[in-house]
Amino acid sequence: MEEESSGSIHSFCDRYCPTNNSEEEEEDDEDHRTKSHKHAPILEKGEDRISTLPDSILLSILSFLPTQDAIITGVLSKRWAYLWTSVPSLTFEYYGYYGRHFECIDDFTSAVDHTLLLHRASKLTNFSVRFKYETNLEASLDLWVRFATTAKVRQLSLRLTPPYCNLNDHAYQLPQHLYTNEFVSEFNFSYCKIFPNGLLHWSSLKHLCIGQSALCDDVIRKVLMGSPRLESLELHDCWDYKRLDIVSESLRKLVIDSYLIYMLGGNVRELELEIVAPKIHSLEILGNFEMIKCRIKDVSALVEAKLDFDMRKSRNCYYEDDYGDEYFKQYYEEEEGYKEYQDIVRDILGSVHHVKKLTVGNWCLMIVSIMPVKHLPSPLSKCQCLTIVSRMEKWSLPGIGILLQSSPYVETLNIDHSFSYVTSLGYLVSRYDEVNH
């Protein structure tokens, strides 16, 4: 191993990995690494008990650390010098607190390359990278993914973020070999292009999370067809599909949100989401669904539902000022701007009437507040545990009353007073009748 020049931060590993100066030292270290630590001897007070633990336990402890911190333990003693090279979990972050080891992205990529060169575990339980992605890093990321899949990794996480917080067309394209993986049980992709050329084969996959990524119309269909054991699917800020059908016999949990979809500006087209998942147990619909028409057709096994979404027209930067002012007035102040959503909210509430646990978000509560009794979902809700997200302003009381009126089986009522981005309706505030309500 070459020694790092003074003052240079070219490689993280160069700073913390010991350098062998002779063949004799190398042989001693090799003998030391191959020793068996089956039983810890009885030690005197003040002696190092941790270092006497078996390798399997120490490796398990190091697996909970970011890889950069695990490498640093190599300076503790000869026992620890090469222990980190057998850790089955590798986590690299050039982001926030864990990015403190690196001065620039070049330092980060060099450190990852050097670490993988020294790593010697035959199998990996987890491989995770997190950094701001740019196209010049594609070749490096391809090599890292190949390293992980060759080691039969079980959990693979590529948590990439777009440069300058702008969702554009320069996302990382997943390599084709990744679509025929029989070992990974959990995938976590962010800011990636997912375009399998042929059939997809993820025979062991149980959990899939996709964020800030373009999904063409048939990608999710291929995922569901090629993942017979998939239990959990999360879609965060995904776009570019015209219609999205969720049809699965194995799926137990589905989470869909679109909090950052506004970052796409005027490039967003109207989307359709239809959920047909007869064995799903948990469903979460979150975020801004302004451009998404959602229909729930078959969730007969559903036990828990969280409906914390907003369908109001947003006053985004891609609107002209006058146009934005008109939207703001129509959809934030006038009654007519909300009546069009009553049928949508009623149908969704009706589709989940059989769940035992139901969470209703702030915006849905607004719609319920102006919903006449004749428009309430039928049949009545069978919910036993009801959670309402509300800041408990006076205009929210009618909606809470209506929900309770239509939920005669409720045993537990939770009021979630957490912060909400949804502003109150000028219309609801103005029509509030303190006596009747």
Strand order across the biggest sheet? 1-2-3-5-7-8-10-12-14-15-16-17
Residues in β-strands, percent: 15-25%
Distance between the termini: 76 Å
How would you sum up the global shape? Answer: elongated
Radius of gyration, taken over Cα atoms and rounded to an integer in Å: 27 Å
Order of helices and strands: HHHHEHEHEEEEEHEEEEEEEHHHEHEHEH
Question: Which structural class do the helices and strands define?
Answer: alpha/beta
Q: Name the poorly predicted regions.
A: 1-12, 15-40, 262-267, 315-321
Name the average pLDDT: 77
Number of helices: 13
- Give the fraction of residues assigned to helices: 25-40%
Number of strands: 17
Reported for the largest beta sheet, the result is: 12 strands, parallel
